[in-house]
Specification:
CATH class of one domain: Mainly Alpha
Low-confidence stretches: none
Distance between the termini: 61 Å
Helix content: 40-55%
Mean pLDDT: 97
Order of helices and strands: HEEHHEEHHHEEEEEEEEHHEEHHHHHHHH
Strand order of the largest sheet: 2-1-10-11-7-6
């Protein structure tokens, strides 16, 4: 099959038949719903760009030799990883939101490598199964959603010690030709916009947790799967007539709670079943791949925010002030630092035993730890330079009112030649990214997505070669025998 177009993707999503609830009501079509539609459009843009910019957004499948969307590609060189990071930045620039396809891409690369390792250790057939699944994804140009985070219940207890075992997705029954699973996955980015669900463990597991060491794939429309759409700040602005104050009217991110209520998984779709020593390895590899991705997508959104800040300075006549230029320079410095570490992580990547390439894990964690901080400072500076009007101005719709419209057009205008509508639209875009629906992915997700800051600190201290650094220091100062 050739690459799907944007319209073909949206049609495939409408025909998917998955069970989705938004604010207590089941929806028939995700793209046509006013709350979820912008998220579907953001995902659709990954298909649009594969048509418009194939040199960056497509690759050659190592399985079939066909041209495929890069989001479905297995990385086979550091150049592949670098192109991924650059592609994600471009998508962030085009949508100014989470376009939701990074996690699935990082998941297929991680499961590809780990299934090979499991086979070498246990003489299983998971890697061949996964290759078949991947061919299916590539040849149909489908989206797999990465489903990792469990609800976790009492976080002080392991999965097998939970009072309610369903707090971690687990095997409840082995049947002829497969098995049955139950549980839920939270925070699933783009789940409602995906054709397939790729499920992985959420943490390292012990021998008592074998039933939780499960990785598999099922269609989003599988019996027993239910999606509950997540709320976002200011999301009901999308329901307003004309949606004047949305800020980013075309695109948006989305997350969902996915319930697996006794879902049957056929044997050919099972990629881990009880091999608990590899659960933690899968989590760490996925986390590293995904943490590097953040140095692409979040930077692209940062580009938009910096551009909007510069534009509002021009609209308000402040762009030539020394303090304005200094703060914009700081925003650019922080944003490019994030991108630079991501590119370094990609360039320093190494080949896995499966033949695929993975990022440098230390640099990936450094990249993500910076991302838990820098977007907040960029956001603070944007709000500083935009001014308090960012959160006190009237609605754009008020410009049309027969009685007060003239006041709005007069007092919300910028410097000479800048209309109230122009100024207010730029301010609404900034508001969207730093406070509204866009802040979900740009700020909060920057903290918790791909693991919280503490997870990165743990990995950084584990991966850093402190012994070598200490030896260098002791050699230079002439100290011996200090262990």
């Amino acid at each position: 099959m050739t690459l799907m177009t944007k319209d073909e993707y949206l049609s495939s999503l409408k025909d998917l038949g998955h069970r989705v609830f938004i604010q207590g009501e089941q929806v028939a079509s995700v793209p046509d719903n006013r709350i979820s539609g912008p998220g579907a459009m953001a995902m659709a843009e990954t298909y649009e760009q594969a048509q418009k910019a194939p040199e960056l957004f497509t690759a050659e499948s190592h399985l079939t030799g066909e041209t495929i969307n890069r989001f479905a590609h297995i990385q086979h060189s550091t150049e592949d990883i670098i192109k991924k990071v650059v592609m994600l930045r471009e998508m962030g620039r085009r949508t100014a939101c989470c376009f939701q396809r990074c996690a699935g891409m990082d998941a297929i690369n991680s499961v590809y490598a780990i299934t090979y390792d499991i086979d070498q250790e246990y003489d299983t057939q998971y890697h061949a199964r996964f290759r078949d699944f991947l061919k299916y994804i590539q040849q149909n140009d489908f989206v797999p959603a990465a489903c990792m985070t469990d609800s976790k219940g009492d976080r002080s207890l392991s999965p097998s010690r939970q009072k309610d075992m369903d707090q971690y997705l687990h095997v409840v029954e082995e049947t002829k030709g497969g098995l049955v699973v139950r549980g839920a996955k939270l925070h699933t980015t783009g789940g409602v916009n995906s054709h397939e669900l790729l499920v992985m463990p959420t943490r390292a597991l012990g021998a008592d947790d074998r039933d939780f060491a499960i990785a598999f794939a099922v269609p989003a429309s599988a019996k027993g799967v239910t999606f509950v759409y997540g709320r976002q700040p200011s999301d009901t602005r999308r329901l307003e007539k004309g949606r004047p104050d949305v800020g980013n009217p075309c695109f948006g991110g989305c997350e969902s709670l996915i319930v697996f209520d006794d879902v049957f998984v056929p044997e050919e779709r099972i990629f881990m079943k009880g091999e608990y020593p590899f659960a933690g390895r899968l989590v760490e590899l996925f986390a590293a791949n995904h943490r590097t991705s953040y140095g692409g997508c979040k930077v692209g959104v940062g580009d938009v925010l910096i551009g909007a800040t510069q534009a509002i300075g021009q609209a308000q006549g402040t762009e030539k002030a020394a303090h304005f230029k200094d703060k914009v320079a700081e925003m650019i410095h922080l944003n490019e630092t994030l991108h630079g570490v991501a590119l370094a992580s990609a360039a320093m990547g190494k080949q896995t035993p499966s033949g695929s390439f993975a990022v440098d894990q230390l640099l990936a964690n450094v990249c993500k730890l910076n991302i838990t901080r820098f977007p907040f400072e960029i956001s603070r500076l944007a709000q500083d330079l935009a001014g308090g009007i960012l959160v006190t101005m009237p609605s754009l719709e008020d410009q049309k009112h027969p009685e007060i419209g003239g006041y709005i057009r007069k007092y919300m205008a910028g410097r000479e030649g800048v209309t109230s509508d122009q100024r207010m639209r730029v301010l609404r875009l900034i508001e969207n990214i730093v406070l509204g629906t866009g802040a979900v992915s740009y700020l909060t997700e920057s903290i918790h997505g791909a693991g919280s800051p503490q997870a990165q600190k743990i990995m950084i201290t584990r991966l850093a070669d402190m012994a070598s650094a200490r030896s260098c220091a002791l050699r230079l100062c002439g100290v011996e025998g200090l262990d």
